[in-house]
Protein: NAD(P)-dependent oxidoreductase
Organism: Niallia taxi
Amino acid sequence: MKVALIGLGNMGLPIAENILKSGHKLVIYNRTASKLQSLVEKGAEMAVSPADAAQKATIVFTILSDDKAAEAVVYGEKGIISGLPKDGIHVSVSTLSVELAKKLEEDHQKNSQAFVSCPVLGRPDAAAAAALRLLVAGPKQAREKIMPVLNELGKDIFVVGEKGHLANVVKLGNNFLIVSMLEALSEAFVFVEKYGIKADAFLEIANTLFASPVYQNYGKIMVEERFEEAGFKLALGLKDVNLMLEAAHNAKISLPTAEIAKKHYEEGIEQGWSDLDWAAIVKLLREKSEH
């Protein structure tokens, strides 16, 4: 199968490498061309624009940081929507707003194209190990056509509906749980440390209770303060929290925990920590506890 991939960041690069390893033909495009060379050497074909990538492959994956980047790639000059042929498929792996996902569904449909949303659960190390969890929503025929590629990217594939935006709802719901965990675990660490209990000792006990790889992995990052070389940047954490709150507002519900996390992420960014891992929320709470 021949597919295109646009966006070679922390997640896009290992996903592209796994597509190549699996034997699929790959067309790549990235705004920063220097990131393309290693993949070209491994057999990937380089495109000169998003439209060119879509024309060459007819199935195009996008892995982009936010709504603004996705809109530029899809709707901008020489964007995907102008290059993708009829019956072509756009697969968005990005964490987008629910509203933008709905718009992409409608606009691709108007152009006789299919939109499949496939956000993933997992950090760059999971992407490299082809151990992502994939949330898939979109027209059945399009989903089935891309399934051979999805099978090379993760160990669990969850089909959540026929409408692409539903996958974005599920992704934001899962990210809300991670945000809630980061907030709660940060507060717990600061609490026990004030009484002289070391965070690593507390984490060992907590892990016997929750037995969750999410608690284990993020807890270790927090204990060891490994916030540089972020798997997921604090600024992106704020972006996702804002997407959760926007979607909640549109559904006429409240997410109080997300509001608290939003405030802490904003304070962290004010401290200049945008590029630290989003688990650095504990760093903020530790510093606040000292005043």
Observations:
- The chain has a mean pLDDT of 95.
- The chain has two domains: 2-162, 169-289.
- The CA atoms of residues 127 and 182 lie 21 Å apart.
- The domain at 169-289 is CATH 1.10.1040.10 (N-(1-d-carboxylethyl)-l-norvaline Dehydrogenase; domain 2).
